[in-house]
Structure prediction request, 159 residues.
Amino acid sequence: MPEVLTDTQIAQYRRDGCVFPIDVMPAEQAAEFRAAFEATERAAWGVVGRAQDDAEGREWLRRPHHFHRWAFDLCSHPRIVGAIGDLLGPDVMLWDAKLFPKPARSRSFVSWHQDATYVGLRPLDKVLTVWYGMTDKGPEQWRHEFLARLAGTRTARSQ
Prediction:
């Protein structure tokens, strides 16, 4: 029996290669993680809201779970790990973590890509990526962006 996901969500993942949104924590707990992220950002740069494409101070954005307890706690959150376990089985491992701050009106972006193309993890059916949004961008906005990109990818593949 699944721990976090419904049978419908698991079927969606198997069919579409993704599933969202997944409610993994109460709003109050999410706000605590966001506040911890902002405190870390403030300590690194002296200000909150800098984009990831800033030249200096980026190292803490890579593998933050190695340096900050709050990031480790987020990566190992029981409901996030539980959802992964529902899809891959109970024996899971965190291979990497990165933070991608994209403040409003920033030119910062993460281009559409496939991690499996360059990271060399195999078998692919035992690897997945979790994207956890720390802002109040709603599920409909994420869904619109993802489906638009997916449609473009499918169009490109069919040509």
